[in-house]
Amino acid sequence: MIDLKQIEIKDLVFSYDGKVNALDGVSLSIQKGDYVSIIGHNGSGKSTLAKLLIGLMEVTSGEIIIENQTLSLENVYDIRRKLAIVFQNPDNQFIGSTVRDDMAFGLENRQFEPEEMDAIIEAYARRVRMQDYLDHEPTKLSGGQKQRVAIAGVLSMKPEVLILDEATSMLDPKGRKEVNDLVHELHESREMTILSITHDIEEVIISDYIIVMNQGKVYMEGKPEDILVRIDELTEIGLDIPFNVKFYLAMKEKGVDLKTPFDVKGMVNTLWQYTSKK
Prior knowledge:
Low-confidence stretches: none
Shape: globular
Strand content: 15-25%
């Protein structure tokens, strides 16, 4: 079997104050092309992990290995070219006075040829359905539009790994759906690895793999269908359960077998067949 590990973390320890570890012996691996969700309550260490991955802070001990390169001060800029991160507040990422200028700024930093930039900007703005807003001021857009612009900006630099650090936490339901739909499309294309740091458990259902953080450690990990049914353990550390899982388990208690909580259409069809027989 071919090893497709793109990111590997070994015994990672990090402390902000030298006394309490924000990350305490974290080890995990992420396969190339996967959509991985890292979930946990506030203070569980998930956002700290994202910042360490892109070299914004130096680890206390342990290793971060990205495509067989161990992250260090010597190669941090080379590794950052492979990664792109979108934070929860897109306003903190805007530099340009227009959407076009903002996207151009990132491309200039990566030393793209000026004659290529217009076509790249147009292509990625269209990719996130923001091509009609290229001459608009970013700060005047809605929350969902801002995050789509932020994602377009990082996609235009063609990263191998896209990190979303609580990218939907400040959005209203409409904006959250816009961004989640876009992430789902990116995942379907399998053109990059997606790592989503989130506290919203509803977002993780479509991911390939879930890593649950608690008190700076990996609490559990596995596929959504294996993790999201562990209700007692998840609620014990302050996480909620997706509605469809709650519904599935409630119906199971009543003797109705809906097969899986992750196929909503199938659940509806089974429930319809069950009620029509009564």
